[in-house]
């Protein structure tokens, strides 16, 4: 069996994990092992998409329709040949 060391883990994170492990009736080591095993078996890593997050919290089912301002620009086009 392999071992890993996690450096620079915030004390607050460790304490929260310890409390969750105690609530589950298992050791901190067993709890973290379970989290890592579960994460390693996930089909794929998905990154957060800001549009999906916004839709989740501010979508139509939350009645928070936002009117976006009209896009326009007053900047001059750059002439690279000049």
Note the beta-strand portion: under 5%
Tally the beta strands: 0
Mean pLDDT: 83
DSSP helix fraction? 40-55%
Number of helices: 3
Coarse structural class: mainly alpha
Could you state the oligomeric state of the chains shown?
single chain
Catalogue the unreliable spans: none
Measured between the Cα atoms of the first and last residue, the distance is: 66 Å
Choose one word for the global shape. elongated
**Main beta sheet:** none
Rg, alpha carbons:
23 Å
Order of helices and strands: HHH
Concise description?
By secondary structure, this protein is an all-alpha fold. 44% of the residues lie in helices and 0% in strands. The protein starts with 10 loop residues before the first helix and ends in a 24-residue tail after the last helix.
How would you describe this protein?
This protein is mainly alpha-helical and 82 residues long. It has 3 helices and no strands. Helix 1 packs across helix 2. The model has no long low-confidence stretch (mean pLDDT 83).
